[in-house]
UniProtKB/TrEMBL annotation:
InterPro entries: AB_hydrolase_fold, KANL3/Tex30_Abhydrolase, NSL3/Tex30. It comes from Nocardioides mangrovicus. Keywords: Hydrolase. The keyword Aminoacyl-tRNA synthetase does not apply. This is Hydrolase.
């Protein structure tokens, strides 16, 4: 992993790991799931491979995780940290925000506010396991920018078949056999690299 850099926020320091492309044409800021850990295979695979395709990848460790806490104090804490971190990155390319699970929800809620041109959702938690009536589809549909959802076929938080009809600007890619962990990072990388060039930047 690239060397981390601390950035101040109202919640305390966040840490960013910048995997820089030599000649970037896009920057992708990725947030982790509710645990705050950045070791998920999908996040690490994107950070390792996308810079070679001209995409700078920034992995964002939220303040609660930097402070050694196991969970965010509240869901919007991720949104608040993202909003404070993005301006400090001094990004000189179009921005795509994204993340896995809770980080995907936060990115949907924040995309327009931080000036992103796209949103990447890895294992979007459409509902809590076993509670499809508690849908979070409004967050996904409210992103307001072109969005890619990469979803495990057996995701207990909502499989691809449970998603509502999606607008033309939102693409859903199912990963066969995968659960919420998306433990097929090569499939995630293929989906993301296929989608990124189509973003109207």
């Amino acid at each position: 992993m690239a060397e981390g850099r601390l950035l101040p926020t109202a919640q305390g320091d966040a840490r960013v790991y910048v995997h820089a492309a030599d000649r970037p044409h896009l920057t992708l800021v990725l947030q982790p799931g509710a645990s705050g850990k950045l070791d998920a295979a999908d996040l690490q695979t994107l950070a390792a491979h996308l810079p070679g395709q001209g995409v700078t990848v920034v992995l964002l460790e939220p303040p609660f995780a930097v402070a050694g806490k196991r969970l965010a104090p509240r869901p919007v804490a991720l949104d608040e940290a993202l909003a404070e971190v993005v301006p400090q990155l001094a990004i000189g390319t179009p921005l795509v925000v994204g993340g896995r699970s809770a980080g995907a929800r936060s990115s949907c809620r924040s995309a327009l506010a931080v000036g992103a041109v796209g949103c990447l959702c890895l294992a979007f938690p459409l509902h809590p396991p076993g509670k499809p009536e508690k849908s979070r589809q409004a967050e996904l549909l409210g992103a307001g920018v072109p969005t890619l959802v990469v979803q495990g076929e057996r995701d207990a938080f909502g499989g691809p078949g449970e998603f509502p009809p999606l607008p033309a600007t939102t693409e859903l890619v199912a990963v066969p056999g995968a659960t919420h962990s998306l433990a097929r990072p090569e499939a995630v990388l293929l989906a993301v690299t296929s989608w990124l060039p189509g973003i109207n930047t």
